[in-house]
Known about the structure:
By secondary structure, this protein is mostly beta strands. The chain folds into 3 domains: about 55-155, CATH 2.40.50.140; about 170-330, Galactose-binding domain-like (Jelly Rolls), CATH 2.60.120.260; about 355-505, Jelly Rolls (Sandwich). It has helices at about 1-20, 55-60; strands spanning about 70-80, 90-95, 105-110, 130-135, 135-140, 145, 150-155, 170-175, 185-190, 195, 200-205, 205, 210-215, 215-220, 235-240, 245, 250, 255-260, 275, 290-295, 305-315, 320-330, 355-360, 360, 375-380, 390, 400, 405-410, 410-420, 425-435, 445-455, 460-470, 475-480, 490-500, 500-505. The strands form 8 sheets. It has a 7-stranded mixed beta sheet with strand order 5-6-3-2-1-4-7. It is elongated, with a radius of gyration of 33 Å.
Amino acid sequence: MKKFIYSCLFLAMAAITFSSCEDVPAPYNMPNEPETPEVQPTGTGTAADPFNVAGVVKYIDEGGSAETEVYVKGKVVSVVQGSWNANYGSLKYYISEDGTPTNQFYVFNGYAGPNRTKFSGEDALKQGDEVVICGKVDVYNGTKEFLANNYIVSLNGVGGATTPDTPTDGYINETFSKSFGTFTLKTIKGTPWVIDSYGYAKATGYENVSKVTTPSESYLVSKAIDLSTSKGATLKFSYILRYATFNGVPTEGVKNQVLITENYTGDPTTTKWTDITGTLTEGTDWKTWSTYTFDLAPYKGKKNIVIALHYACEAKSGTWQIKELTVKEGTPTVEPGTPDTPSTGDTTTPNGDFETWVDGKPNNWKTASSAGNASLAQSTDAHSGKYSVKVGGSTTANKRLGYKEMKLKAGTYKIKYYVKAATATGASVQSGFVEISADNKPAGNYMYSGYINDITNTEWKLVEQDLVIPSDGTYCIVIMNSRKPGGDVLIDDLTLTLGETVIIK
């Protein structure tokens, strides 16, 4: 009995002894329980200082803009099986700090390089590959990720992955059928650019249901394009523009501009833009698309070229629809009725013979004011030389060909030119002028020297008229294409003289 009692006491003491050992800390970590140090966020998200994965997560958590492209450096964890498609060439994959699944970051529909350079297949990226990616980031369905159209800037320390010198599908190739693609929306106020359900980008402050106009200003800003190896590229898109003018006079507060810069600040309101809009054709229906073309030859050899589509309105609004915007290698081709001719000739000449064209427009025949409101196109049907100017007509409003604003002395000027109807409709014109105020607005009535009627498309007709300038000032010399009958008209070999002094020839 005593032996049994002693045995029980011994077992109880042993249990107490082993239990007390559980509170003693281990002198070192066990080999199968390694410590994982926390990765600190680094980088500023620029090309020179990309975020690490922790850095881009912090950027998103702190409300970083989903409309701004950022740069992120990491290592490939894995490629999503079945994500590559030969038609699109994009991949879905994950990156992390060290190429392991720990704290991985999702890359949705990324490309091998800028301008939608295609991956060759799912094996184009391998686990552990070091990449620098440029694109927009945000939270989508609860997942922090790179949004579509991101691209690799460098792969394992080498410049974009298989980036061609000249992209086969162009530097920019946007249909605007479902999204803005590589364009970034920047809205200053009011109603922004939208993707219309019919498959194009649309800008207007007018709301059809309420019939109310909201004062608005919004930009569509392209990604930066690299033309350093370009031999010459062309910007081109299709558009419909309506209600930007009323009876031939631009609607106050309405802007529809094509802008370009090589020094984009990230803020369109602080960027110094160059206006390359030229003259846009205002449509009369919602079915007929016009073509805009601009020769980018002045920008070849340059990097970081950014293009913007800018619209604004105040009390009244126009409507601008755009689709199929491309920037591709090659010079513009001349299409009938469209001002798509590249620069030619000596731009220092007054250009009364219309032989000199700059970016599809006759040199010196663009007004800062609303005096010149007609659509202009180059025509090979010339009175002399190679070209004349075709002045678009309208049956609802008079249209004017205007020479650039210039200071003129009081006196009797003689204007002389040849005119011919561009169609069987015929044409009627008047020569005239209007004084221009300091803020580039017509300061009074247009003064004309009488109609020239019965202009046919079978022969050139000589026009000679006097223009009496009443006082010294700034004026626009114009030729008005009458809305009756409203057909297009050709003008060539124009001269303006004051006594023996030749002003335009």
